Amino acid sequence: MLTWKQDILVILFALSLPLLYHRRRTARDKLPPGPKPLPFIGDIVHVHSYGKPIIILNSYKAVYDLMESRSSIYSDRPHLIMLMELMGFPGTAFQPYSNLWRKHRSLYHKQMNQIAVQNYHPSQMAAAIDFLKMLLEDPKDYIQHIRRSAANLSLSIAYGRDLIHRFDQYLDLSEQVSGNFVRAVRPGEFLVESFPILKYVPLWFPGANFRRWAKMAHDKMQDAWNIPFRDVKEQMAKGNVPPSFVANSLVELGRSDESDFEVGAVKSVAGGIFAAGADTTTAALSWFFLAMTLFPDCQIKAQEELDRVIGRNRIPQFSDRPFLPYIDGLVKEVFRWFPVAPSVILIAFTSIITDHRKILHDPEVYPDPMSFIPERFLPDKDGNVPRDPTVSGVFGFGRRICAGRHLAEGFVWIMAVSVLSLFDIRPATDSDGKPIDVRYAMEPLPGFFCHPQRFPCVITPRSPEVVQLLNQVQF
């Protein structure tokens, strides 16, 4: 016999069946004609999940034909009821293709285009130096140091370094929001995505735990977006506010009323910079440390280039980048080896997923794809190089390509080159003195972003002068 809770679920399910049938029929009718698709065969895979059609693009050609050549059509996002309606997510990533999304992108482009990001080089250098000092003091906790440095950078860019005294409060909010976001977008996590009628269940209703969780997540998200934004506004009212995305944008607008469409967009974009930047950068740099642990020959070659070009008497700068081609290839290989973020767009009721990893592991383009080979991005005897992963997959495609990609790629570069210049990364050893095999870490952790499993490594200064070098640098 069914319980009263099960009775209610059955009734809600029955009421939602006509809507589900209509949506599925409409989606199927809009799919391109052709033979019944076979799963996991060819460049384009068509499957169903919870009655919703999903198309997976497995080749660069398929992605380019749809998401680049026809980007005006394939630029929407799936409408996630939990994230967008119940939690009220204001960020850019899952905004539909609309005037609001276009405003967000315009703000990003103005402040973070390839030229404008050079204004953030001092902030990126400062975050890198902070990380190196933490690494020197406590090398075993390097993952947490990466996360803290990436969040520090995101804070300084979005809201300014003068708010660093409230960093721990902001970081706590950001991490809670990030965790809630990951749960909200996890496929199959919430029944409301398959049965939208459940969103009308009141908070007080027995068994409505998902609604109460959504209310909590909504309130945390509002705090994360509102508190630092209003702190900047308060600083601006007092004068002498340092440059930041928020301050620069509000000065340009000449107003700060949050009910204003453009001011509200500035607040949403700033929250997205702080909330999203730390997780993706942490993932990429974690893969860097794993690669250096597993492929010591690559580390040796990179350090030989550094010693030849820069020496050991100073810390690398962004201006050194054109003279360090091997390290440039190494950073590209970090991004290609394990791309950190998925990409999902929408047409009608069909989700379209680009399989970044398959595209960037195509053996015809990148031979021996699971090996870490920075040399693949150096010109061959005919001057040819394979597709640059930072512009062909890692950061997405088409109009939905990551707006902060220049900033993220630059920060990973300065962090990697700084670490290689000052430190050695070696495998940890067991009680018998044998190197610990950490290849297991190449199996990514479950989650929205692609992180390696935790693994031990030994990080030591390359010379006694490292301490002196770090103490000399001021930002």
TrEMBL record:
InterPro entries: Cyt_P450, Cyt_P450_CS, Cyt_P450_E_grp-I, Cyt_P450_sf, Cytochrome_P450_fung. One of its GO terms (molecular function) is oxidoreductase activity, acting on paired donors, with incorporation or reduction of molecular oxygen. Pathway: Secondary metabolite biosynthesis. Heme binds at residue 402. It comes from the Eukaryota. Keywords: Heme, Iron, Metal-binding, Monooxygenase, Oxidoreductase. CDD domains: CYP64-like. Its cofactor is heme. Belongs to the cytochrome P450 family. This is Cytochrome P450. It comes from Clathrus columnatus.
